[in-house]
Amino acid sequence: MAYEFERKQRIGVLGGGPGGYEAAIAGAQLGAEVTLIERAGVGGSAVLTDVVPSKTLIATAEARSAIDDASDLGVQFFTRGESGRAVRPEIAVNLAAINKRLMGLARQQSEDMKANLKKAGVRIVTGEGRLEGPSRLVASTAKGAGGRDFDEIDVDTMVISTGSSPRVLPSAMPDGERIMTWTQLYNLADVPEHLIVVGSGVTGAEFASAYTALGSKVTLISSRDQVLPGEDADAASVIEEVFTRNGMTVLSKSRADKVEVIDGGVRATLSDGRIVEGSHCLMAVGSIPNTAGIGLEEAGVQLDASGHIRVNRVARTSVPAIYAAGDCTTFLPLASVASMQGRTAVFHAMGDAVNPTEIRNVASNIFTNPEIATVGWTQKQIEDGIAQGEIYKLPLESNPRAKMQGITDGFVKLFARTGSGTVIGGVIVSPRASELILPIALAVEHRLTVDQMARAFSVYPSLSGSITDAARAMHIVN
């Protein structure tokens, strides 16, 4: 008797960043035959040139700030000079050593992820990939004497996770030495004497904060009224106040028309004619999706005007067998979202249980000092009548743990549905806000009320106590 065995589902993944990595792992776990094509290294730019190195740099900057701030808590650093008198030592920052460490951590993280994929049985192809129709991927890999080999991979389902790249302007072309994108900063051997940051969005604000802490003079050029446009206005106000207090120059309502290299530095020309000169310039003017020239449109995949791939809440594109995840899509450009999209795509394609991604439930964080974490509906949406809610803001300076740690900047803000008291969002500005936002994210995800949050026991004293205090203040009278 002859038996027919069902063929394994074949999944092709283009791009090994967080979205592609999670898609490949999920497919292998569900028994699919998975091939992943990645040109730079597993983890993609998120691991190799973006999230991992930048957040490592920021963690180092925070350590530098902690030394400076220790004297406020009564901890002082002194050495004895030749006369025997106490002398405060200089705090040195070895940027070359910092960059060597962070790039080493990035490579190690990439290797760990690669090992996980191999252990799961995923086939990894190192090379440039493109689509040839909705069911075939072609990988172009280098071979000897400058030639190329081409590997054709037939698939039943494909997941596109090609990420994005820093946007560059013709009037401020990066040279990798004086004018740089955020992927090129890690080549610096010394802390810039005067770093000009063009762009006050998340990336610009994070690096401006970090390099100020590391000892650079920083000028932040913002085309908007306030840094971090689009973020919670109260949170952005706190960050801008901290920036200026720490010595940063913030030029609001300013636009850089041109940045050029001059002898020993750079010159930025603003639209109003002002000139700003510095030693280096970071261009942080957004990113563009890596979707051009890889066969998407020929395969029938719809893109929006900016080149991002249109996807629905299960990461499916306009072509049923093609999914997409991460910064190349129309969803939020966050590593956590990319990972969720990658898993969701494969679960959906293979008929497993799926929870469609709800963007409003995504917690996000800005790694300035202090950090800004948000989830759910925003205050502006409530004030504009898009959502019905009550707003309560509790300054962090009233928190006993904050007082002990010398924390004076920040707050906890909760948004609750009018009438029911259901938590619909929140904002935290605080050191480690990225850790503190989770209880509010859980409340939003599971539709808890402020009274249910208030009944949870927070540790005393703790920064998280401000979350339950805010919830208690919003008690709904029955």
TrEMBL record:
**A Pfam family of this chain:** Pyr_redox_dim
Domain (FAD/NAD(P)-binding) spans 11-342
Q: Where does NAD(+) bind?
A: G199, S200, G201, V202, T203, G204, A205, E206, G286
**Cofactor: record remark:** Binds 1 FAD per subunit.
Arranged from A to Z, the UniProt key words for this protein are: FAD, Flavoprotein, NAD, Nucleotide-binding
- Give the top-rank taxon of the lineage listed in the UniProt record for this protein: Bacteria
Protein name per its UniProtKB record: NAD(P)H-quinone dehydrogenase
